[in-house]
Amino acid sequence: MRLRLPGIKPAALPARNEAQSLRVTVALPASYEKARRRRYPLIVLTDARELFGSAVEMCRAVAAARETRECIIVRHDEAWLAPEDAAAEAAHLEQIIAWCRRAYRVQRGEVALFVSGGGVPCARTLHDRRSKAVDRWIVVAQTPSDTPSAWCQPPARRAGRRPRVAWTGTASVPVAFDASVSVKTLPEATPAGQVVTALLHGLRALWGTGHDYGSEVMPLGKPLVAALLRGAMPIIRRLRQSAKAPPANESRYRFRSELMDRDFEIFVSLPPRARERRQAYPAVVTLDGSATWSTCSEIALRMAAAGEIEDVVMIGIGVPHEEGEAAFGLRRFEEFSPPAGDAAFTGGLGRIFESIFALFGQDVRRHFGRAPDFHRFIVDELMPELLRVLPLDPQRLCIAGHSAGGTFIGFERAQADSPFSRFAVSSPGVSISDNWMLKADGGLRPGLARGRRTIVTMGGEERHNAFNALAGIPLSAHYARQLEVLDAGEVEFLCLDGDSHTTVFPRAFALAMSRLFASEVRGA
Predict the structure, then answer these.
(1) What are the residues whose beta carbons fall under 8 Å from the beta carbon of 402, sequence distance 6 or more?
(2) 250-324+371-523 — its CATH code?
């Protein structure tokens, strides 16, 4: 898969006692070039197949949310993953780590090995001989016998106050461990579906900051702040018009919407066997493709390769890169929000939206609430073209979204002419647009079951987070219950304990894939 993430650097280093060089790919943090004196933890992926893009995307996402420190990520592009090559690959990893320490600003004592898939044998080799190259271990359990105790040993040196091992598995662990081991259990997960969540567990356990998600935007909801920014909009608008345009960045898959008078960037990933087989596949359309495409597509590919789900065509809808990050943030609020009257901007959440738009010289009332237009773009422009050029089964189409994207999924499933029959609603902002999702003439419109299947998820930590509460995310359970009361098709709700608004996303997406696309595989 071609990665389109910034800050990715390929490199080659001489292999010890071998003619060929070791080829690696390094992802540097967003602040690396500016923060010249800062040193960073290093994460080494032992098996980066269908994982590297996810690792980079999600590590950067949790760092941007201030929940963890920024990290350097490296993979061995031609890793030897056969068990008989474990010793050789372990030696390669030690060389790669030593090279990273010389080439980049790696913090001393903060090198972690991410152990998953085919990388387990070489990781065990390094662990059992107590390699000094590795300081910490982020482990994905592969088998029932692969318990946290298998990765515990007296440390060769002090590991500081942080855990030395972060272990994630699907089976419960009856034994308690001391502070050197952090354990996370995912009872709902599949072996392949748990991998990205395991990485995020390791990030938070080893380098978490304790930052309260969204706390930095809460002051924008104060009436005085919103009023001041509203009054400053003309000045802000003039300043932004005189500012330099964002640097151009190639968008290869532009799709022009005449209905919305704007461009979208469309991402597509076909199953590996699609060119060999003449058949139609189910498809998953994911929102926020600009920020989550690698994560969603790699999770689907990895789970399908493991036989956990059907082969699916993955489709992402994003904002062209050259429009910049600010446009991405504002457009998702515009396009994903249901119709909004003045009442939507009188409370704290509405004032936060008003302040955010005012910071960019825009009046929120002129831009907010364009979900009906976005729906028409999908139904009338995008899907007809995708159905024409891709091997899609029109009876098995799914749409998935998180946060404000989850709010749009709630809007989409309430539309009588929606082409989708499966809906993955992750941590939706139920309170957006004056609680539109909970209104009888809105998200709870009756008579739309028609065999639709809906899975609603949220993170356990979102129940107690002030910003998430303001956005109405804890109301997700009530929303799902009301859908069941309406007999609105098959509805399932899960609260995924131990995850924040940011970290729950890959876990929720993998769960939705296993619930919505596993039945055909199991019944085959």
Answers:
(1) 287, 288, 292, 426, 427, 505, 508, 509
(2) 3.40.50.1820
